[in-house]
Design a protein that fits this description.
214 residues; homodimer; mainly alpha
Chain lengths: 214, 214
């Protein structure tokens, strides 16, 4: 198919398709004549993946490139692919501000209590510690008390995530499952949490006649 | 304090402080002489909040401005503040691509099954449906099977989130709890999920001697 059809099939504007090809996120098409390049179904699928990572997963172009490289590189040890996915957090916390060590201490206690085995370099550590630091700096000790509930929820979700990886057939599919599930799973949880918030708020705070919770 | 001290106390560069003041995210200081403006502890606290929303919560400047306005506006009905927080998703899904209606159908079924009461305009609906659509378009039906586990986790977390709101003293604190907890809670869960992933992967896939999961 021509680039115009690839664009309409994938919902990605032609200029953006060209940008992704230039950046190496999507493979070049096959040049069939001086002024024509042909694309196929693999390009459609790849563009969908790129858009899902960027639009829904909130990754930057550079972040999407890194996780796509992990999917593509068959020689990459599986553990490294898991590591790349772990680093695919859309937002990396600035190191400034996290000076008290409170978040790091609370997180260490949580990890020890649960007997979790987690490397020092796991990207989730910095983000979790930073949120705890922020809650503390904002004087919101009450929000820190929810840590155990969040950890329980994360543990239950992670167990299913990794189970799906184990069931995926073959190395390439396993890596794709890790990367896609890690990036889009954040968005899935955020969406469901907003829905569950509204439902819980409706029971906890019945809406007055003039109110509008939506 | 002078702007230089405000900058070092909050970890926000002077130029960025000036930008936030210009954009209305942070109140102006008090002009005490022709070339001096004084700031106080309320400015330090506000800058911390702005940085937490932007750095950790992944909000844009416009998004941070909207949720800060919800915290500031005492006249805003509480339900509207909940709504603003619900719309604070760092990444809003593009409408393109979600053409099959598969995600919408699966989500409706989930909501009906659980007896959840959720407005059509809840921002979590579009995001959740989009992730399901993406999984389907990528041929990952296996990932869609995890929906119930994610919904259970979101429900448990949301219950505690809203409970904390109910316990917060006074209208201003309740709004702050909703907004801060909604935005930073996404980051907290994402961080803990990365940690729990590594722990679960270590049991499921014992690391070979040369492997490095970190």
């Amino acid at each position: 198919m021509k680039i115009s059809e690839l664009s309409s099939r994938s919902g990605v504007p032609v200029a953006t398709v060209k940008f992704y090809v230039r950046e190496g996120l999507v493979a070049s098409g096959e040049r069939t004549s001086a002024n024509q390049v042909q694309y196929d179904e693999t390009h459609v699928a790849r563009l969908r993946l790129v858009r899902a990572f960027i639009d829904v997963g909130g990754l930057s172009v550079a972040g999407a490139k890194a996780v796509l490289a992990a999917i593509d590189d068959e020689s990459l040890p599986f553990g490294v692919a898991v590591g790349v996915a772990a680093h695919s957090l859309p937002v990396l916390p600035a190191s400034e501000g996290a000076t008290t060590g409170r978040g790091k201490r609370d997180l260490e206690a949580l990890i020890a209590e649960r007997g979790w085995i987690v490397d020092e370099t796991n990207a989730g550590r910095a983000l979790t510690a930073r949120v705890i630091d922020d809650y503390a700096a904002l004087g919101r000790e009450d929000l820190i008390t929810s840590l155990a509930t969040y950890a329980d929820a994360a543990e239950a979700v992670a167990k299913v995530d990794i189970q799906l990886v184990a069931e995926a057939a073959g190395r390439a599919d396993q890596t794709a499952t890790v990367v896609i599930g890690t990036v889009l799973g954040d968005a899935l949880f955020a969406g469901l949490r907003r829905i569950a918030h509204e439902n819980a708020a409706r029971s906890q705070f019945p809406v007055p006649p003039e109110g509008d919770i939506s």
